[in-house]
């Protein structure tokens, strides 16, 4: 249930944002969205089973919002979500359709809105491990290509084209620390090329890997945290 306490806290946070960002004014569509999202979160209370007192959802719910561009959707779901999660001592998980949207949220929206709203929360961007290079495979692809003296059109499963220079540059940048192994920070590689130099957990050698210590996947904080 959406209590007066929560409503008051949301209003107070919006007022704080307006206090530090004079240009900010909650738009009508944004206010409606904030109210609907807050209602949905508030309805999803966790109670205890009468039988064995184990946790049960007493009001799982969802809300579907079609918000136009520019109404301030990020704030409209982050603010009620963050405030209600904090009250319940829960983690708020936000899933977006693209990594670019997640990046925008973590690098731009959250650092802007949360402090302004007086909400102090830790947040972390969790990406799938295949967004990061597998150093072991990258080295193997380069080695294969060198050994085969490959050129365009002479492809194998592990080396789909002859662009060895692309892979060598990636490895050089990775070794020098200029590239952190994150696919989203480079543009010079297509999906086919990328698929040869990344891996999922089934293909990972884990601690048996000679590159384990410097592995971008292993060292990514979001994956260390179990993402
Ligand atoms: S630890 Fe796994 S993901 Fe990392 S470089 Fe080795 S095989 Fe690849």
Give a written overview of the molecule.
The protein folds into 2 domains: 4-117, no CATH class; 131-222, no CATH class. The chain is elongated. The protein is 48% helix and 3% strand. With 227 residues, it is mainly alpha-helical.
Q: How would you describe the shape?
A: elongated
Helix share, percent: 40-55%
Query: Could you list the spans in which at least 5 consecutive residues all have pLDDT below 50?
Result: none
Q: Measured on Cα atoms, how large is the radius of gyration?
A: 23 Å
Name the structural class.
mainly alpha
Question: Mind summarizing the main beta sheet?
Answer: 2 strands, antiparallel
Tally the beta strands. Answer: 2
| SSE series | HHEEHHHHHHH
The ligands found in this model are:
iron/sulfur cluster
Question: What is the count of distinct domains?
Answer: 2
| Helical stretch tally | 9
- Measured by DSSP, the beta-strand proportion falls in under 5%
- The termini sit apart by 30 Å
Mean pLDDT: 86
Physical arrangement of strands within the biggest beta sheet: 1-2
Organism: Noviherbaspirillum album
InterPro entries: Helic_SF1/SF2_ATP-bd_DinG/Rad3, P-loop_NTPase
Keywords: ATP-binding, Hydrolase, Nucleotide-binding
Protein name: Helicase ATP-binding domain-containing protein
SSE topology sketch:
Layout: H1 4-20, H2 28-43, E1 46-48, E2 55-57, H3 73-88, H4 99-117, H5 135-148, H6 164-176, H7 191-195, H8 216-219, H9 221-224
Antiparallel strand pairs: 1-2
Helix pairs in contact: 1-3, 2-3, 3-4, 5-6
Bound molecules: iron/sulfur cluster.
The site of iron/sulfur cluster has 13 residues, from α5 and α8.
């Amino acid at each position: 249930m959406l209590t007066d306490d929560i409503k008051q806290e949301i209003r107070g946070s919006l007022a704080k944002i307006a206090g530090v960002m004079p240009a900010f004014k909650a738009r009508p569509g944004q206010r409606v969205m904030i109210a609907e999202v807050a209602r949905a979160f508030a309805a999803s209370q966790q109670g205890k089973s009468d039988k064995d007192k184990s946790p049960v959802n007493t009001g799982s719910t969802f809300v579907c919002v079609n918000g136009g561009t520019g109404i301030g959707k990020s704030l409209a779901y982050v603010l009620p979500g963050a405030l209600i999660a904090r009250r319940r001592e829960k983690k708020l998980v936000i899933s977006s359709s693209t990594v670019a949207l997640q990046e925008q949220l973590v690098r731009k929206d959250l650092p802007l809105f949360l402090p302004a709203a007086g909400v102090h929360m830790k947040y972390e961007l969790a990406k799938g491990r295949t967004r990061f290079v597998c150093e072991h495979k990258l080295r193997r692809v380069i080695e294969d290509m060198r050994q085969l003296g490959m050129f365009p059109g002479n492809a194998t499963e592990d080396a789909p084209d002859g662009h060895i220079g692309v892979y060598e540059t990636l490895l050089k940048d990775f070794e020098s620390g200029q590239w952190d192994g994150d696919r989203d920070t480079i543009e010079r590689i297509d999906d086919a090329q990328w698929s040869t130099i990344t891996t999922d957990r089934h293909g990972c050698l884990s601690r048996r890997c000679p590159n384990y210590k410097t592995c971008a996947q292993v060292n990514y904080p979001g994956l260390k945290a179990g993402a």
